[in-house]
């Protein structure tokens, strides 16, 4: 029998609204699941159970009184440990901040609370979000719920594991080069990378760089849409924030795929891709192509995007962490040190050239959507690997140039500032979760969510493409 913690956010919220489920009952169910499973998985690194229990009781009292209830009323939420939470330890996965407790919530966390969400605690992340394997020197590694010795991806790995394991129905994520998409794929959940500014992000240090975005994570597209609605809103402290959030519909209606033109790309034309994963994607694509008005095999014109991303990311890390390297080198992990030092080797001419090239990539990419409605590609190039290994150094026997190269299938897209849903798509050849990216141009957030919702329904029709659930989790 399924437990309340295994309900989708939409199901739980509906039951709370009709007084068929108590927020207290839901919270305690989530707390039990954490107690039972998180010793081996390490998804939550700081819990706020005492405050959460008080808030759940307040939420329950409000239900009994019959007053208006918020969008997320009574729903437990996991918050990534890159997001500041008032009164709750926020470390950014770094020894530098291992005892830091903020006085204020980040904007989107405050909005989640205002919508009735109950912060359960903080979910694990690699140090400052660097790398796609959730492990750090403060809290250690987070295990994949399908195999606890394997990685859950990163940097929103703790959030993805908490969702897949039934610890919470909703969780926050953030994405620069794939930080919510990769863990969503590796854990069989949904991650949404929105257009820059849709969820205001004034806390980022590189404020005038729009590649780093905040986005929701959940078990279904509808649940991700629900959390997104709580997070969005204009904030003048984020220069990319605008009134675009008003385009997100109150209710999410799946798109009519039969009216749409889709392009399928196994590797974006240049990303390293494991042969077996390519085979899985080709087989899954064959099941989906007929659902669209037309479907073609097409790679976006990304040119030398691999090199461009290295420079742009280097600039970002120098902006964010050069002071950390100068003052606290001994406390930093190798990924952060490598990124900063790599960035410092680039000249101002390199940065200028990369910015010019990124502009061309952006324009070519968005022009492609004058001819198609959606681009579909794998979310990850490989099956989840052992988390004891920080990153894979080769694919198909070919040595990779940097520790980041294995997730180029996500970070190359980031250069064009797209809207992307990572959608679970069954299991791969190793019996681990497999995901696909549903990609649209910047500003197409409502359309991408609608397409993803329709594809989610289509995938549910086939046993091999349904959202995978860990064998020890009760199906809702």
Description of the molecule:
This protein has helices at residues 9-17, 23-41, 49-65, 107-114, 157-164, 181-187, 221-231, 275-288, 305-328, 334-344, 348-368, 408-414, 445-460; strands at residues 44-47, 76-80, 118-123, 135-136, 140-141, 143-144, 147-151, 170-175, 190-193, 213-218, 261-264, 294-297, 374-378, 394-395, 398-399, 419-427, 433-440. The chain has a single domain, classed as Amidase signature (AS) enzymes. Helices cover 36% and strands 16% of the residues. Strands 1-3-2-8-10-9-16-17-13-11-12 form an eleven-stranded mixed beta sheet. It is α+β, with helices and mostly antiparallel strands. It has 13 helices and 17 strands. The model has no long low-confidence stretch (mean pLDDT 97).
Helix and strand topology:
Elements: H1 9-17, H2 23-41, E1 44-47, H3 49-65, E2 76-80, H4 107-114, E3 118-123, E4 135-136, E5 140-141, E6 143-144, E7 147-151, H5 157-164, E8 170-175, H6 181-187, E9 190-193, E10 213-218, H7 221-231, E11 261-264, H8 275-288, E12 294-297, H9 305-328, H10 334-344, H11 348-368, E13 374-378, E14 394-395, E15 398-399, H12 408-414, E16 419-427, E17 433-440, H13 445-460
Parallel strand pairs: 2-3, 2-8, 11-12, 11-13
Antiparallel strand pairs: 1-3, 4-5, 6-7, 8-10, 9-10, 9-16, 13-17, 14-15, 16-17
Distance between the termini: 8 Å
Unreliable spans are none
In CATH, what is the class?
A: Alpha Beta
Largest sheet: 11 strands, mixed
By oligomeric state, this entry counts as single chain
Percent helix range: 25-40%
| CATH structural fold name | Amidase signature (AS) enzymes
Overall geometric form: globular
Order of helix and strand elements from N to C terminus? HHEHEHEEEEEHEHEEHEHEHHHEEEHEEH
Task: Indicate the structural class.
Answer: alpha+beta
What's the number of helices? 13
Number of domains: 1
CATH superfamily: Amidase signature (AS) domain
CATH architecture heading: Alpha-Beta Complex
> How many β-strand stretches?
17
- Overall radius of gyration: 21 Å
- Our estimate of the beta-strand percent is 15-25%
